[in-house]
Design goal:
- With 483 residues, the protein is α/β, with parallel strands linked by helices.
- It contains 15 helices and 17 strands.
- The protein has a 7-stranded mixed β-sheet with strand order 4-10-9-8-7-5-6, sandwiched between helices.
- Helix 4 crosses helix 11, helix 5 runs parallel beside helix 6 and helix 12 runs parallel beside helix 15.
- This is cysteine desulfurase.
Length: 483
């Protein structure tokens, strides 16, 4: 087996060894599981997931209850994996897609597939309208005052790179400082590292609190200075689950004249956001995290800030007039959307934003606080060998902001990938690895972690199934090691 290393260097197992583990675990379960245990592990079957005919009316999202009643809107959940009902707890990596989004994608290709903008025929006109409607739906989801503040990108990573290569390249000079944190996703580290090399800017990083559960706001405050030009921080950590006090950060950043970018990949899907009250100059998010398609996301920016940013990629769509030796450029957001966009994906993103808004983001947040608390409590009470990362639910330092419905964890003596592989053998999907947050894992003193993350369609019964499968996994390794 592969013990969890604390050296900061991964000791991840090979695929061959993982296959052997899975085979051994299957043999162990056959020998040890009782009929009662098998019943406990089975996730409740939802309503029949008949194929959508594309014509039958879909239910009003506002009329749907979250949890088990919502599952009929997600056909992918109605399957078995390795002979067991699928328990999908990898939502922080990507969410599943409701019928409304699948239908929007299908309708685009079946009814009005065409390139957008400038076409005068009927299909192009409708495709353009649907594409721009999707922009407006995303704007409504985050309470933007104007849809022209929403730039459609490939994902949040591209959105951050866009800001770095436009505003950053135009405004940063040697000695200017960018404040990041040790908890950032690589997408909010690497673009600024590349920019710092080009411009001579200096990177500063907010530490964790002494108990390593959240960002240290005292340290953040100490890093601010007249040299600070940009603060770029994660709104909700994809590992710790902690929620940034964005209003406080924005106030402190403004006090020194710095711009603020927030990585909202883990907050847009799970809470009611109002970009006006966040105080940021930009936020970024990826569609696939909030029930939309992959390959598309968005950058929101204050319009006066977007207007000051020059183009990044050149080509069609982003121009006003092109001459042989120079060009003039369109105003935002078109200025930042060179070439043919991911049309169907953007329309699917809009459908997801509309569906979630109709479902009610307040309801989404409340349900996730409930299921996330249950997940934390069941997991952490299973064994003293389990270390869960981030602040516990109800931590007074969270200021009532709660925590994300995810728990990254390790089991003493076991590698996260071994644990996750055997959970998959039980039909439970969790993520393992560094979750694109290697510096954070170094701060935590581990090379990797496993992560269970719940969403609006997960249930308490599924959490119970996950915990029971984890209990069996730990017992399996104990038996193997003791053999």
């Amino acid at each position: 087996m592969h013990a969890a290393s604390t050296s900061g260097r991964s000791t991840a197992p090979s695929m061959r060894s993982l296959a052997r583990l899975a085979s051994k675990r299957h043999q162990w379960i056959v020998r040890h599981r009782t009929a009662a245990a098998a019943t406990d592990l089975a996730a409740p079957a939802g309503p029949s997931a008949a194929l959508d005919d594309g014509r039958s009316p879909l239910p009003d999202p506002a009329s749907l209850q979250l949890g088990a009643p919502l599952r009929s809107q997600f056909p992918i959940l109605e399957q078995t994996v390795n002979g067991r009902p699928l328990v999908y707890l990898d939502n922080a990596a990507t969410s599943q897609k409701p019928r409304a989004v699948l239908r929007a994608l299908s309708n685009c290709y079946e009814e009005y597939n065409s390139n957008v903008h400038r076409g005068v025929h009927a299909l192009s006109a409708r495709a353009t309208q649907e594409y721009e409607d999707a922009r407006a739906k995303v704007a409504a989801l985050i309470c933007a005052s104007n849809s022209r503040e929403v730039v459609i990108t490939r994902n949040a990573t591209e959105a951050i790179n866009l800001v770095a290569n436009t505003w950053g390249a135009q405004n940063l000079k040697p000695g200017d400082e960018i404040i990041l944190s040790v908890a950032e996703h690589h997408a909010n580290l690497v673009p600024w590292q590349l920019l710092a090399v080009r411009t001579g800017a200096v990177l500063r990083h907010v530490r964790l609190t002494p108990d390593r559960t959240q960002l240290d706001m005292d340290h953040f405050r100490s890093l601010l200075s007249p040299r600070t030009r940009l603060v770029s921080l994660v709104h909700v950590s994809n590992v710790l689950g902690c929620v940034l006090d964005a209003a406080y950060v924005a106030e402190r950043a403004r006090a020194v004249g710095a711009r603020l970018l927030l990585d909202c990949c883990q907050s847009v899907p799970h809470s009611a956001l109002d970009v006006g009250s966040l105080g940021a100059d930009w936020i970024v998010a990826s569609s696939h995290k909030f029930c939309g398609p992959s390959g598309v996301g968005f950058l929101w920016g204050k319009y006066e800030v977007l207007e000051q940013m020059g183009p990044w990629m050149g080509g069609g769509e982003m121009i006003q007039d092109v001459f042989l030796d120079h060009s003039t450029f369109a105003p935002p957001p078109a200025r930042f959307e060179a070439g043919t966009p991911a049309i169907a994906e953007a329309i699917g993103m809009g459908a997801a934003a509309e569906w979630l808004q109709q479902l009610g983001m307040g309801r989404v947040h409340d349900y996730e606080q409930e299921i996330g608390t249950y997940l934390w409590e069941r997991l952490t009470s299973l064994s003293p060998r389990i270390t869960a990362y981030g602040p516990p639910p109800g931590d007074p330092r969270s200021g009532g902001r709660g925590r994300a419905s995810l728990v990254a964890f390790n089991v003493e003596g076991l590698h996260a990938t071994d644990v996750s592989t055997l959970l998959d053998h039980a039909g439970v999907a969790v993520r393992s690895g560094h979750h694109c947050a290697q510096p954070l894992h170094r701060e935590l003193g581990v090379p990797a972690s496993a992560r269970a993350s719940a969403y609006i369609y997960n249930t308490a019964a599924e959490v119970d199934a996950f915990v029971e499968a984890l209990k069996e996994t730990i017992q399996f390794f104990d038996d193997v090691h003791g053999a």
